[in-house]
Design a protein that fits this description.
11 helices
Length: 195
């Protein structure tokens, strides 16, 4: 999953949030360099990714992007699912999502000493341009797609993924609605086990 899902699935626990948000930037046993709470967040991040990557509904969603981006299709599904989460009124109203985003940035800013270098470089932009709230808009999803393309070593970064996303919004939305409640339940169980 992408940044919004990782933040949301931290369930307002600051240490878990920090670990969950920096998880992609902490490799292997580097997690042991962090306090216990943040370490649990990093482990939760990895658990979310493992569950997501192995889920059959996510495999179906990947087929939308696979002809264009091949093995990177999972990264594009992650971004797409943040669009549906940001618009999911069963989880939050738009106003609540805005408040959630602000509180997330505040919590993260209070823990900047734990940021790996790459996340430390990224965070000011995330906050300034309010990525978490703005995932609800297609324009932000397009920017996120371009960001994935820039980071992908083996993809032409001029590929235009956005039309493929927009054409398949009904199908991808159905995939999100089938998948996210299962992910949320799984995370709640894992959080209990990590305590």
């Amino acid at each position: 999953m992408n940044f919004l899902a990782h933040a949301y699935l931290s369930f307002n626990n600051d240490d878990i949030l920090v670990g969950n948000m920096i998880g992609d930037f902490v490799k292997g046993k580097q997690k042991d360099n962090y306090p216990e709470g943040i370490k649990r967040g990093i482990m939760l991040h990895r658990e979310i990714d493992t569950f997501t990557d192995a889920h059959p509904i996510v495999s179906e969603a990947k087929q939308v992007f696979k002809p264009l981006v091949g093995l990177y299709s999972g990264a594009f599904v992650d971004v797409a699912f943040d669009y549906f989460l940001a618009n999911d009124i069963h989880e939050h109203s738009p106003g609540d999502w805005q408040l959630f985003s602000k509180n997330t940035y505040l919590s993260l800013a209070q823990n900047e000493q734990w940021f790996p270098e790459k996340f430390a470089q990224l965070f000011p932009y995330m906050r300034q341009y309010d990525w978490l709230y703005n995932y609800r808009f297609i324009a932000q999803i397009e920017k996120s797609f371009m960001s994935v393309l820039k980071r992908a070593k083996y993809l032409d970064n001029t590929i235009n993924v956005a039309p493929l996303f927009e054409k398949n919004i009904p199908f991808l939305g159905k995939c999100y609605r089938g998948f996210f409640p299962e992910l949320k339940e799984h995370v709640l169980q894992k959080l209990d086990a990590l305590r």
